[in-house]
Amino acid sequence: MMTEFPGTSIVRGRVEGEALVADATLSFWGEVEPVSGRVIAVGHPLEGQSIAGRILIIRSTKGSSATPMVLRLCSLQGTAPLALVNQEIDSLAALGCIVNRIPLMVVKDPAIFHTIRSGDWVVVDSDQAKVTLKRTGAR
């Protein structure tokens, strides 16, 4: 059985891939290294993990006017996330996702952080405004 989370589509698109999940905020400026796509924020739940080619599910990005630029650098390096799913919207992340054609959704249901875990396979279908847990990874 697949679990679905309805949401609000901010940037349209449909992708599926491996989830990278943290019930935390993340700043692309200073907390993500764009060449490798690794989270470099000391003490962050995702510290040392790569966002590259994964569906990043976090509470929200946190402010920096450099967010669109860092997302662009990640896109050019091939280290951008496949999609971004936030619980709260950040207009600068939305701008970065628009420019780089990265699907972006807002899912308010906090259960997403307890149901979908890093390593799970998910579908982000912002055309249909839903995130679907397709299969679980090793837990």
Task: Describe this structure as you would to a colleague.
The protein is α/β, with parallel strands linked by helices. It has a single domain, classed as Phosphohistidine domain (Glucose Oxidase, domain 1). Helix content is about 20%, strand content about 35%. α3 links the parallel β7 and β8. α2 runs parallel beside α3. It starts with a strand and ends with a strand. The mean pLDDT is about 95.
Span between N and C termini?
A: 17 Å
Biggest sheet descriptor: 8 strands, mixed
Number of helices: 4
Reported by name, the CATH topology is: Glucose Oxidase, domain 1
CATH architecture: 3-Layer(bba) Sandwich
Name the features.
single chain; 139 residues; alpha/beta; Glucose Oxidase, domain 1; 4 helices; 10 strands; 21% helix; 36% strand
Protein topology:
Elements lengths: L2 E4 L1 E4 L2 E13 L1 H4 E2 L4 E2 L15 E7 L5 H11 L5 E4 L4 H10 L3 E3 L5 H4 L5 E5 L4 E6 L4
Parallel strand pairs: 3-6, 6-7, 7-8
Antiparallel strand pairs: 1-10, 2-8, 3-9, 4-5, 9-10
Helix pairs in contact: 2-3
What would you say about this model in short?
The protein has 139 residues and is an alpha/beta fold. The chain has helices at 28-31, 67-77, 91-100, 112-115, and strands spanning 3-6, 8-11, 14-26, 32-33, 38-39, 55-61, 83-86, 104-106, 121-125, 130-135.
